[in-house]
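User: Here's a chain of 312 residues. Predict its fold as tokens.
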Amino acid sequence: MNGADSLCDTLLANDVDVCFANPGTSEMHFVAALDRKPRMRCVLGLFEGVVTGAADGYARMADKPAATLLHLGPGLGNGLANLHNAKRARTPMVNVVGDHATYHVQYDAPLTSDVEGVAQPMSHWVHRSLTAQALSADTAEAVRIARQAPGNIATLILPADAAWGELPANSPAPVVAAQEAAAPADAAMLRAAAQAIRSGKRTALLLGGTALREPALSVAGRIAQATGVRLLSPTSNRRVQRGLGRTPVTRIPYPVDQALAALKDVQQLILVGAAAPVAFFAYPGKPSLLAPQEHAPIVMATPEQDLLQALE
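Assistant: Prediction complete.
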């Protein structure tokens, strides 16, 4: 086996089993390794923006990292727009970006570029593997970073000689430890939220993260039905479950004047699935980043489902 086999085996050992790819000559050993692994589904994209966009959408729906395979810095550059969207949505993703053999970089071939520099703005973690022996550990670290809540973009640079470097047969593929469960919601915050809901003031739950998906969404609906609180969602969300039979949630409009109008009657706002600091624009004429104390939003961290059940 070679380094590319080791990379692929480590992805599979950690349940990353779909790779969206637009490869070039530098990545042929990894392409061959993908073809040798029946459990790995390789999806060809004819443009890098399709590759990164498809990986973003797949990972949002599958709730696990998708992999991409891109050709050198220019290929990565062609996919940056959808990597930007994925990073903003905190989509888990492992990008494998090929590069020239380590000893060939000095010759400054036409597609030679600063791959790290291209990757950094749209990645949470960037690393270059220098040997076949390092690939399994580096790949496992990329998966670990990608899985960290709420999700990260991990970019692993794969020089051609690291991909074709020979390794002992059946070299081990490290498995990343399962992510620790989120800490329970703060009891004081729960009391404050419950007090706000029962106060008689016009109160809204601003739902984000997995609070916009079942089973948390149904819990939020029962709270709204029992207490009359409004259910709102931010303008942008990674994934929202909706349709016939789902709890309806009003999306805050993107234009500022419309957003202000949507929030003008809210006296206290409870953010579910959010983390401080929070940009808050609900009160005209007041500081934008910190609302006045009497109207300060209650910021509730994950786990969203536990929080909503406690409020119910």
